[in-house]
Amino acid sequence: MEYPEIYKLSAAEARARGETDLFRASQKLNIACKHAVETAIRENFDGFHLKGCCIEPVIAEYGIDRVDWVLANTVQTKMSDGRFSRDNKVWAGTFPIPGSDNSVFEPRLDYVVESHPAVLDGFIGLVRRERDREKALPEVEKPKPSIRAQLSAPPAAVEKPQAKNRDREVR
Questions:
Q1: Euclidean distance between CA atoms 28 and 30, whole angstroms
Q2: How many domains does the chain have?
Q3: For residue 167, is it within any domain?
């Protein structure tokens, strides 16, 4: 399944490039993903255990890349919290999430997951194991598009090469 791309530049860079719409759209999805993670934890933590299947609807809705991005951002902003495992802190540090130069406006804070850090650490572990499981699947086991779907799809448009205008060609 195709998921919207994560905008990985800062708000200032988006403004400079004229891509504020892309930044805002990605920011909205990051915030929605944060709320989905909080809901999944709230509905699947019984006080002692977090159900392993709780990550599935969040990943299905937002894609594992965005879930990783939101979780890594959360750990990066709470790096001094000892309830996150060392491994998860190292993992989160591998994501180049840009901050803001503005001391008043920090968009990253809008998608920091506010669930209990110890439970959230377990959620992150589940997501990371799912990512590792996907990477370990051999190509043969990964889902392939059906032949019927490929045959019934309209042919891709192919651009015809344009004839060169020899009078204007520079040599």
A1: 5
A2: 1
A3: no
pTM for the structure as a whole: 0.77
Which residues is 50 bridged to in the sheet?
A: 45
Query: For 47, left (φ over 0), alpha (ψ -120 to 50), or beta?
Result: left
Tell me, what DSSP letter sits at residue 157?
A: P
Q: How many residues are present in the chain?
A: 171
Please, where are the H alpha helices in the chain? 11-17, 20-44, 56-62, 64-77, 86-92, 117-136, 147-152
Q: Phi-psi region for residue 87, left (φ > 0), alpha (ψ -120 to 50) or beta?
A: alpha
Residue 108 is assigned to a structural domain of this protein:
yes
Residue type, 91: W
Coil, strand, or helix at residue 97? coil
| 74's tokens | 């959360």
What does the block give as tokens for 90? Answer: 């190292």
Torsion of CA 66, 72, 75, 77, to 10 degrees: -90
3-state SS class at 45 = strand
Read off the pLDDT of residues 27-81 as tens digits, 9 standing for 90 and up.
999 999 999 999 999 999 999 999 999 999 999 999 999 999 999 999 999 999 9
Phi, psi torsion values for 159, nearest 5 degrees: -75, 135
Structural domain span for residue 121: 11-141
Q: Is 148 domain-assigned? A: no
Tell me, yes or no, whether 100 lies in a domain: yes
- Please state, in angstroms and rounded to a whole number, the distance separating the CA atoms of residues 98 and 144: 35
